Backbone:
């Protein structure tokens, strides 16, 4: 019996001794932790919108004058360049009018130049000869009239014969007086008011020529930019009135349109960089236009975003990300931050746990911008619940 009791006591001592040894060993073993190195980086607050891809500029092009369409050398979908010919009117009638106007101008210029430059010596000599001839003719008919009148008094000729000679004498007298007037004008030169009247005729004829020329110039519709044909609204040989659209074109620019809320509109400005995402493709863009007033129905402000290139088809639905506030510093996940009387994190220094007080300066989504941590600090991100300050730890991957 005594032997059995002694044996049991020895066994108890052995077990107790082993337990104490194991406890000491466990207390000295470092806890495994995972860490993340603190780094300086930038993060942005962002606005998120859904947008629609649209074309930048669309223009309906029309003739400035009406007529018959002679040619439309483009079709829907054609790519066009700046000042490419898109539609042409028949100008045959206008060209007839232009030639007539040019002839009128030429004649007016000749009369004006003649008045300004004065009559030549040859013209004065010819006018003098005309006076002599007219004088001779008048004197001859006057003499004949006097003779016939004397015969009429004697009853030798009829009243009819007398009247015939008198009429001829009056015609010759008027011709003689006109020849004298022409000669006098040739010698004196054109009067100032005559020159001014002729100058006005030249100016009127010039305007008429320019009007017809402009009608011919306006008979062709050109593309105002490089782009694509959207619609062709008339066919060749159809009659079209001035001002009616004949071809619709768009430029090459692709934009994204969004409606920004009144809360967000003050965060946006022209030239601000934007990210546009569709079909797992991200494209950079910039804000090109911001409406001054909101839409009456939606109360949203129309914003146009200009894209680089043409990455998306017109009509596509895209996601728009707008960074509005960027901060640089040490950003850490909020879940790593501990709070008692202050905010703090655990870091590892020389395989020991150290507590570091921090201040949260900003937060975006699940991250916080903090001060109190230096770049390069090793923040405990896993295993932190099992450690306290000054504990020994081992870093594991």
Residues:
């Amino acid at each position: 019996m005594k032997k059995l009791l002694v044996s049991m006591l020895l066994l108890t001592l052995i077990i107790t001794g082993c337990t104490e040894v194991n406890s000491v060993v466990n207390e000295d073993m470092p806890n495994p932790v995972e860490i993340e190195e603190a780094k300086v980086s930038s993060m942005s607050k962002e606005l998120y919108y859904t947008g629609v891809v649209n074309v930048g500029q669309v223009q309906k092009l029309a003739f400035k004058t009406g007529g018959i369409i002679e040619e439309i050398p483009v079709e829907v979908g054609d790519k066009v360049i700046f000042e490419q010919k898109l539609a042409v009117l028949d100008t045959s009638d206008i060209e007839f009018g232009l030639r007539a106007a040019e002839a009128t101008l030429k004649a007016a210029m000749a009369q004006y130049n003649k008045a300004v430059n004065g009559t030549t010596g040859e013209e004065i000599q010819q006018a003098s000869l005309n006076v002599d001839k007219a004088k001779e003719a008048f004197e001859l008919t006057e003499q004949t009239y006097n003779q016939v009148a004397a015969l009429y008094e004697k009853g030798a000729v009829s009243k009819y014969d007398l009247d015939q000679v008198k009429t001829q004498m009056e015609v010759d007298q008027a011709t003689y007086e006109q020849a004298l007037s022409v000669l006098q004008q040739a010698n004196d030169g054109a009067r100032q008011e005559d020159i001014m009247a002729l100058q006005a005729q030249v100016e009127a004829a010039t305007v008429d020529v320019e009007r017809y020329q402009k009608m011919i110039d306006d008979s062709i519709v050109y593309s105002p930019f490089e782009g694509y044909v959207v619609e062709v609204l008339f066919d060749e040989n159809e009659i079209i009135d001035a001002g009616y659209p004949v071809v619709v074109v768009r430029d090459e620019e692709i934009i994204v349109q969004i409606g920004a809320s009144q809360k967000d509109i003050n965060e946006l400005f022209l030239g601000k960089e934007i990210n546009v995402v569709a079909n797992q493709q991200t494209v950079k863009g910039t804000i090109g236009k911001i409406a001054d007033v909101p839409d009456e129905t939606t109360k949203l402000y129309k914003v146009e975003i200009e894209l680089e290139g043409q990455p998306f088809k017109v009509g596509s639905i895209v996601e728009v990300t707008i960074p509005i506030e960027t901060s640089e510093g040490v950003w850490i996940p909020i879940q790593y931050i501990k709070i008692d009387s202050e905010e703090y994190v655990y870091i590892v220094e020389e395989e020991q746990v150290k507590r570091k007080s921090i201040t949260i300066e900003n937060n975006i989504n699940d991250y916080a911008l903090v001060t109190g941590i230096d770049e390069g600090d090793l923040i405990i991100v896993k295993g932190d619940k099992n450690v306290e300050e000054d504990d020994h730890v081992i870093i594991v991957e």
In short: DSSP finds five helices and 22 strands in the chain. The domain at 46-56+251-326 is CATH 2.40.30.170 (Elongation Factor Tu (Ef-tu); domain 3).
